[in-house]
Specification:
Elements: H1 2-15, E1 34-35, E2 45-50, E3 57-65, E4 70-75, E5 80-86, E6 88-93, E7 102-106, E8 110-113, E9 119-123, E10 127-135, E11 140-141, H2 150-153
Antiparallel strand pairs: 1-2, 2-3, 3-10, 4-9, 4-11, 5-8, 5-10, 6-7, 6-9
Length: 154
C-alpha cells in the first residue's frame, strides 16, 4: 500500500509536467516548477525537462532545493546521473550521511550513481541539480525510517 501511495504521489508531481518524448528547447526561466514528489523530503521543487520519470524510458528533471535540504542514504534501481546547475551540495556514498565520506560538489560538477549504489546529498547553498535517468524513477531509502512523510502513509 505504501508503494502505491508513493507512486501516486510521484505521478502527481512528475506526471502532470511530463513532456514524454517531446523535443525542443527548454528555457530555464520558463520551467514549470512543482512540489517534489512525496517520497522526497518536503521543501524541494521539480521541473521535468524531458520524458516522463514515472514511465519506461529516459527522463531529465531539475530539482531546486534550499540550503539545509537533505536526502538520506538511498539507492535507485537504475543509473542516476546528476549535474549541479547552481549552488553547493555535499555528496556521499554509503549507508548513512557521513561527513567523513562526503565531497563538496559545485555548479558544473557531475556525479553518477550506478543502479543499487547507496548515496546521499545535503544542500549547503540553495541549489538546482539536473537529474537524468531511465524511468520509472524509484527511490529506496536504506533505513525505512528515513523515508519522508512516512508517518502520513501509515
Amino acid at each position: 500500500m505504501r508503494s502505491i501511495a508513493l507512486t501516486i504521489g510521484a505521478l502527481c508531481a512528475f506526471g502532470g509536467a511530463a513532456l514524454a518524448d517531446v523535443s525542443g528547447l527548454r528555457r530555464a526561466d520558463g520551467l514549470d516548477w512543482r512540489p517534489a514528489p512525496s517520497d522526497l523530503p518536503s521543501g524541494a521543487e521539480v521541473a521535468v525537462l524531458y520524458g516522463d520519470p514515472m514511465s519506461s524510458g529516459p527522463f531529465v528533471v531539475r530539482l531546486r532545493a534550499p540550503a539545509g535540504y537533505q536526502v538520506a542514504a538511498h539507492k535507485h534501481p537504475d543509473l542516476e546521473t546528476i549535474t549541479v546547475i547552481s549552488g553547493v551540495l555535499r555528496y556521499g556514498e554509503g549507508q548513512r550521511l557521513d561527513p567523513r565520506s562526503e565531497a563538496f560538489v559545485h555548479a558544473g560538477d557531475f556525479f553518477a550513481a550506478p543502479a543499487g549504489m547507496s548515496h546521499w546529498i545535503a544542500i549547503n547553498e540553495d541549489a538546482v541539480i539536473q537529474v537524468s535517468g531511465t524511468g520509472p524513477w524509484k527511490i529506496d531509502y536504506i533505513d525505512p525510517r528515513d523515508r519522508p512523510r512516512a508517518a502520513q502513509l501509515n
